[in-house]
Structures are given as C-alpha cells and as structure tokens.
C-alpha cells in the first residue's frame, strides 16, 4: 500500500517520515555519499526524482520518552532542523546525525533509505533553510549551445555519450547541441550505469553516477548428523536451501531435531567462496525429571543462576485475616479499589520448574542490548551491573527470553502468576515468606522504609518501620532468601509475569497450572518493590500494567520447565 501511494504521487520528491516501528522490508539501497558535499551535490540530488522513507525504529517498539512532549525520534528530528545553520541539508545527512543519538538513548534503530518500487531515480529530498530562495542554479553560458558536466563516485569511470567514448570522470564537455543524450558510465568491478540527460541551450547539465560494488556471493553447504535435521539461518528471513547463495558476511546457523539437543554455530562467508559446515547433534539429555529442592543450574551465556522449585499445591490469594489487616491499614473503600482482585482464595497446583535465583540484572541484560539504560530515580543510581534491570517493558522481557533461549538452547519464559506466587511463598502459609509482620521486612526485602522516606519527600504513603539501608533498588541478593533459596521475591523491583492481568482471574482459574493468556492488554506485575508499602509487599498482592510500560521499579526474572544438556 505504501509503495502504491508513493508511486502515484506526482511530486518530483517524496519523503515519508514515520514515527513508528517498521520491519524495513520496503526499503531499497542507497548509494554511497561522496567525500565532498557542495552545491553541485545538492543540485544533482534535486534534479533526480526521489522516493525516500525515514522511520523511527525497525521491528523494536519505539520509545515515547523524549523531551518537550515528543518521542525520542521526533525530538531529535525537530532539534536538528531547528538548529541547522546550513542553507541546504539532505535527508540522509539529517539521518546520519540523529540516528546514533536515538540509538544511544533508546532501544530503537532508525531506518532511512529509498522505498523500493516507487520510482526513485537517485535523488533526495533537500531541506532548504528559511531565507534561502533555491538551490544554486547551473552556470549560464553565453551562446546557443550547452555544456555537460559528468562526475562519478568513485572517480575514473569511462564515460560514453551517445555510444561514443568521451573520456573519464570527472568530465566537462563544452559546446553541446541542445537535446537528450544517453550517457553511460563504466568502472571496473561495478555494474555499468545508464542515464538520460537533457542539455538545454545556454545551460550546463550535470549528472552524477554513484557506483555500487558488484556483489559476489558465496555458498553454504550444511551437512548434519542425524539426517533430516532442521537447518535454519537465524539472521536471514528466507529458508535454508543446500548450497544457497549468501552475501559475504557472518551467519548464525541453528540445527535441531526432535530428541536431540539443538546446536547453534557461527560461520563466515567470503565473496565467491563455498563453505562446508558439518554439525553433529547429541541425543537430548534432560536433567533428572525430579531434581531435588534447592538444586541449582547456571546458564552458560549470562551466568544467570536458577533454583529448582519442586511442584506442589498451595492456597493462592488473600486470607480472611489478611483482608482484615488490609482494611485496618487503608480503609474499606481503598481496600475495594486496591486489593479486591486477590480473592477468592483457591487451591492451585503447579508442576516443578526452574526459577531465576535473582532478578535479571542490568549486566545480564546488556549481553542482549548493550546500550540499555536503567537510568536513575531522583538522583539515585539504578544502572549498576549488579542492580536489577528496570525501565524494561513486558515485550522486551519476552524478547530477552527468546534471545537467551536461542543462544543457550533452552526454553526460557516469564513465570506464570501462579508459579510466581507459589515460588514467592516458599512453602509457607503466612502473609509474607518470613511471617505475617511487615516490619521484619528489612532483613528479607528492599522496601519503602525509613531510608526511602527520608530520601524521597514525595513518598507520602505508609512505610515499613525498619531500615534496609537502600533508598532505591539494591544489588540483587542483598537480603535473605526464602525457603526455596530465591532472593528478592518480595521487594526490590516489581516483576513481570506471563499472564494477562484480569481482576477476576481467580474465579476463572483451573486447579492445575492456571494461566490467563487473553482478555486484555495489561500484564501481571508481582512482588511490590523498593517503593512498596506494607500492603503492597505481600505474596498475595497483584497488579497489572500495559505491556509497553517502562518503570523505574519494574523488572523481571526468568524460569524454565526443564534444562536440556
């Protein structure tokens, strides 16, 4: 649809600017920029038809956390145009300046290129500064004939006009009869380029040829054992075919088959080279179907530790005693607003699973997204490598789990809400895994306490009457674990769960391994966090937020049903 609309627009230059994530499949290729950018360069771009697009992101969700009420992308684009002091600036020059800033301040990867199949002829949309009347016109020539100026990037191309060799670029031709001329440029190692140029009386026509290197592809041959394995190249969209042509570069090949442990290997393809890759899979071995309580496993990619949580049944939700305690703390009206989604209390059974011993840290996540910034909260740092990851959406938490699963050959997921509460209780039946009293929290959890109350004057809600020593997020594992050997299940940061948030979820739960996967766009958050009041730091407490939310007190931990070795 985009291509059709742009193709039918009659304007010589069309630029599509889209402040949204976009797959990039409609983008073509742009020629290399010359080393010298002058009025001739802008004039040539202006003379050729253009159909370009600039988008704020690729497939990743775009950030709205810019300045002056704009997204990061929109703010940087407006800022660049407002502060520009040059008479002319091209679309690609703007993109080249703002793209690194956007990438360094968000998880976005902006795109900017011609749109395929729309009639782009090598021109570009030129922004002209206010007060500049037009792009500099060609030299006026006295007499009835015209001139033709031909340049190329790289220089040294053989130039043919009307089929006859005229010299090598850069080339200036005088006394040209007015009319249309077919101009061809040839340069060793590149595809020849043909253009038609019109020479007018008493004017100079200019034409520029941008050469793109001929791409000599390589081939990849993959042999597997056992036969019949599934072969997939992870960083291309097309399916694998034996001996397929691939552009020079590095590729990640994944081989899998039911009953075998998948294997991922990296291979480098050179121009004109055939590469043979042999991959042998090993029979899948599953760590004991019933590991013992407290058994641990370490992910080799990030060093993340996991603890085995044995399966079992428990009463999920709020007790009558808990209800009375909450009403006393916040009153009946607020109880109905805040805590009424924790009932009815019901029995739930979950299968055993591996649970992250700690919340995912900034350092671990940066193996996936090296530029992630958890920022700070009112001057308190949240960005240390051993602090829990925050400013992370549910969508990106899922993307991290998928990436890590591919890298480690495992099946990482977010815990379901039932798994999370079962793990958080640690086999206990009290309001919190250490007991019913909130003011013992500071030995076991990082919560809203006297430290954060003193640090943040705007925290006017009830605090825990103890001192945990941290105003905001603490390094993971700073407090005592629960009986399953899990740290920070309450406090420190809220944690995303797999489930869709539903106020009435408990009336819909089945008994075995319940999970709510439809019915809304918000996702469950659990655990309270470093800013949590006594009523908010309980095993039964539940809340929800939109899947794209990024908050300074919200992170996640991973789990997996079994470990493949």
UniProtKB/TrEMBL annotation:
Location of the Sulfatase-modifying factor enzyme-like domain: 305-558
UniProt-listed PANTHER family: FORMYLGLYCINE-GENERATING ENZYME (PTHR23150:SF19), SULFATASE MODIFYING FACTOR 1, 2 (PTHR23150)
Pfam families associated with the record: FGE-sulfatase, PEGA
Domain PEGA, chain residue ranges per copy: 146-213, 218-284
One of the record's GO molecular function terms: formylglycine-generating oxidase activity
UniProt name for this protein: Conserved uncharacterized protein, DUF323
């Amino acid at each position: 649809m985009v291509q059709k609309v742009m193709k039918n627009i009659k304007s010589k230059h069309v630029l599509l600017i889209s402040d949204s994530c976009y797959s990039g499949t409609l983008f073509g290729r742009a020629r290399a920029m010359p080393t010298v950018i002058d009025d001739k360069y802008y004039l040539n771009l202006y003379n050729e038809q253009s159909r370009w697009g600039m988008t704020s992101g690729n497939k990743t969700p775009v950030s709205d956390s810019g300045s002056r009420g704009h997204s990061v992308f929109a703010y940087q684009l407006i800022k660049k145009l407002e502060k520009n002091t040059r008479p002319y600036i091209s679309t690609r020059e703007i993109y080249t300046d703002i793209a690194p800033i956007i990438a360094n301040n968000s998880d976005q990867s902006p795109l900017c290129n011609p749109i395929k199949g729309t009639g782009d002829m090598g021109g570009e949309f030129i922004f002209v500064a206010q007060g500049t009347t037009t792009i500099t016109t060609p030299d006026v020539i006295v007499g009835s004939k015209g001139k033709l100026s031909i340049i190329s990037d790289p220089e040294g191309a053989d130039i043919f006009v009307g089929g006859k060799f005229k010299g090598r670029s850069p080339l200036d031709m005088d006394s040209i009869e007015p009319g249309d001329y077919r101009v061809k440029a040839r340069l060793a190692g590149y595809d020849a380029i043909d253009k038609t140029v019109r020479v007018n009386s008493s004017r100079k026509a200019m034409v520029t040829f941008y050469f793109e290197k001929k791409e000599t592809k390589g081939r990849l041959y993959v042999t597997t054992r056992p036969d019949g394995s599934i072969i997939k190249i992870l960083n291309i969209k097309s399916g694998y075919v034996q001996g397929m042509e691939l552009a020079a570069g590095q590729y990640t090949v994944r081989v899998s088959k039911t009953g075998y442990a998948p294997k991922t290997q990296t291979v480098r393809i050179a121009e004109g080279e055939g590469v043979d890759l042999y991959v042998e899979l090993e029979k899948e071995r599953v760590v004991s179907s019933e590991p013992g309580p407290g058994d641990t496993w370490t992910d080799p990619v990030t060093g993340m530790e996991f603890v085995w949580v044995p399966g079992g049944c428990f009463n999920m939700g709020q007790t009558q005693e808990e209800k009375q305690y909450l009403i006393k703390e916040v009153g009946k009206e607020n109880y109905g607003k805040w805590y009424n989604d924790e009932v009815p209390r019901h029995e739930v059974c979950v299968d055993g699973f591996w649970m992250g011993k700690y919340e995912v840290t900034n350092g671990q996540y940066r193996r996936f997204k090296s530029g992630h910034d958890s920022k700070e909260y009112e001057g308190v740092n949240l960005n240390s490598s051993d602090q829990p990851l925050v400013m992370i959406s549910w969508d990106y938490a899922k993307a991290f789990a998928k990436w890590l699963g591919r890298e480690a050959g495992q099946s990482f997921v977010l815990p379901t809400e039932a798994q999370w509460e079962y793990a958080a209780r640690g086999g206990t039946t009290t309001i919190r895994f250490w007991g019913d009293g909130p003011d013992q929290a500071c030995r076991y959890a990082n919560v809203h306490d006297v430290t954060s109350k003193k640090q943040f004057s705007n925290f006017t809600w009830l605090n825990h009457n103890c001192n945990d020593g941290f105003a905001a997020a603490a390094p993971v594992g700073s407090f005592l674990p629960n009986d399953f050997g899990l740290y920070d299940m309450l406090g420190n940061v809220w944690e995303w769960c797999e489930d869709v948030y539903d106020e009435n979820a408990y009336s819909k739960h089945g008994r075995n391994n319940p999970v709510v996967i439809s019915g809304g766009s918000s996702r469950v958050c659990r655990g309270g966090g470093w800013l949590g009041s006594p009523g908010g730091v309980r095993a039964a407490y539940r809340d929800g937020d939109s899947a794209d939310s990024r908050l300074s007190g919200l992170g996640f931990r991973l789990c997996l049903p079994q470990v493949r070795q």
